[in-house]
Write a structure and sequence with these properties.
- GO terms for molecular function: peptide binding; peptidyl-prolyl cis-trans isomerase activity; unfolded protein binding.
- Its EC number is 5.2.1.8.
- Its main location: periplasm.
- It catalyses: [protein]-peptidylproline (omega=180) = [protein]-peptidylproline (omega=0).
- The protein is α+β, with helices and mostly antiparallel strands.
- It is built from 18 helices and 11 strands.
- The chain has a 4-stranded antiparallel β-sheet with strand order 4-3-6-5. A 4-stranded antiparallel β-sheet has the order 8-7-10-9. It has a 3-stranded antiparallel β-sheet with strand order 2-1-11.
- A hairpin with a 2-residue loop joins strand 9 and strand 10.
Length: 451
């Protein structure tokens, strides 16, 4: 595997929010140390010595859990600081673009962490953590919120870099993988491997790999679940029977589409555990993909370097009030919308198919009655107001096949584009390292002295 991709994957694991014990430990350290030192400045933020110490402790813990040699402290500090700088540079962009997860999404993410400790409510989770050290729950919640915001930033920035032409799609659909994907009904076995307590991520990955190997040799998912489940790791499985690909979540459908009968997907790491699917059989379905389309127009106000997040919210509220007072949607969209493509056409997005917009936009679109104007709402792109002017039913079988092809092709490109984007983020960030012994570039350029 390319070393840059390995570094990216390690970075994701390094900042995994479910490393609950380490977060609690770091919170206790912060309350025990009333003073701190700045070790680096990243744009408008700082990295403290306690942040570096926490990161080094977490890296040491992971390496020891994996039974790997822990490198010398100075080397580990350089690597950890580099990763902290990259994380902070991304958080600076999060602030610049006004990206913030909504409370429901954040609550769900925190609750999933709590469930790993056997706690079923946020209030009980907060009581348990704050009993260890005051403010621990807030620290964990803030970190999870930052990770959600970074993930949204990455999706927004990286997906915009992925270019898939119509010819790429056509070539894929003619390929063996594409032809296999066109068999739109699949018989699938689905397994999910999840931690029931604070389990080392490497151990969870190992069990998931064993489940995958067992699925390669057997279709008895019940026996496999019983064999690999323990008090700390739960293996759940089901024979899903025949399903239309359209019924599967798009990420899982994209993984299943290229498979031949008898093959399993790679391990799929998501917040609720590790998933693996096995394709038993595929058959063509004559059922058409009939979907409801929404003729939609919108106005987008986007935070930028010249418009703060607060100004963007004030602007969208002002536009909403003017629309409610009877001003023309087309005129206001052409004048104010940051979506220049649709603004030229009075904000029109044409006929929108479900699945083509981000979830927040799609949910608001589906739940806004025809002819009415939505209240302002936020997505990763900024603040929107939308209006659905009509709906219709359309046979989207061919379009659905093309969309699935784009998902498969996009997934192939995502990791390499993410790595490229992370390099650019790091290169463009203003970084000042306060301690020379923590500056890797300074050490590389230093001239050895003769004793």
């Amino acid at each position: 595997m390319d070393t840059t991709l390995m570094k990216t994957k390690y970075l994701k694991q390094f900042f995994k929010t479910t490393a609950l014990a380490l977060v609690v430990s770091s919170s206790m350290q912060s309350f025990a140390a009333p003073t701190d030192e700045v070790v680096a400045i990243v744009d408008n933020s700082v990295i403290l010595k306690s942040d570096l110490e926490q990161g080094v402790a977490e890296a040491q813990h992971q390496l020891e859990a994996q039974k790997k040699t822990v490198p010398p402290l100075n080397y580990l500090q350089l690597q950890v600081l580099d990763q902290l700088i990259l994380r902070q540079a991304q958080l600076e962009q999060v602030k610049r673009y006004g990206i913030k997860p909504d409370e429901n999404t954040l609550n769900d993410a925190v609750l999933k962490v709590a469930s790993q400790s056997g706690i079923k409510s946020l209030s009980a989770f907060q009581q348990k953590l704050d009993a260890i050290a005051p403010g621990t729950y807030a620290s964990l919640r803030n970190r999870i919120g930052e990770d959600l915001a970074i993930n949204r930033l990455r999706q927004q920035q990286v997906m915009s870099r992925i270019k898939i032409s119509d010819q790429d799609v056509a070539n894929f659909l003619k390929s063996p993988q594409g032809q296999a994907m066109l068999g739109s009904q699949v018989h699938v076995i689905h397994a999910r491997i999840s931690a029931q307590s604070d389990v080392d991520p490497q151990q969870l990955q190992s069990v998931a790999q064993q489940v995958k190997q067992a699925l390669n040799e057997s279709n008895d998912i019940t026996a496999i679940s019983k064999k690999f489940s323990t008090k700390d790791i739960k293996v759940e499985g089901a024979d899903m029977g025949y399903r239309d690909l359209a019924e599967l979540p798009s990420e899982l459908a994209a993984r299943v589409s290229p498979l031949q009968a008898g093959q399993t997907t790679d391990l799929i790491n998501v917040r609720d555990g590790i998933h693996v699917l096995k394709l038993i059989e595929r058959k063509n379905s004559e059922q058409k993909a009939i979907v409801t389309q929404y003729q939609t127009r919108h106005i987008l106000i986007q935070p930028s370097e010249v418009m703060s997040a607060e100004m963007a919210k004030q602007t969208i509220d002002s536009i909403y009030n003017r629309l409610k007072a009877g001003e023309d949607f087309t005129t206001l969209a052409a004048t104010y919308s940051a979506d220049t493509g649709s603004a030229r056409d009075g904000g029109s997005l044409g006929w929108v198919t479900p699945g083509s917009m981000v979830p927040e936009f799609e949910s608001k679109m589906k739940n806004t009655p025809v002819g009415q104007i939505s209240e302002p709402f936020q997505t990763q792109f900024g603040w929107h107001i939308l209006q659905v002017t009509a709906t219709r039913e359309k046979d989207m079988t061919h379009e659905y096949q093309e969309r699935m092809a784009r998902q498969v092709l996009g997934e192939r490109q995502f990791d390499s584009e993410l790595d490229s984007w992370l390099r650019e983020v790091r290169a463009h960030a203003f970084v000042q390292i306060k301690e020379p012994q923590l500056d890797s570039k300074a050490q590389q350029n230093a001239t050895p002295t003769t004793p």
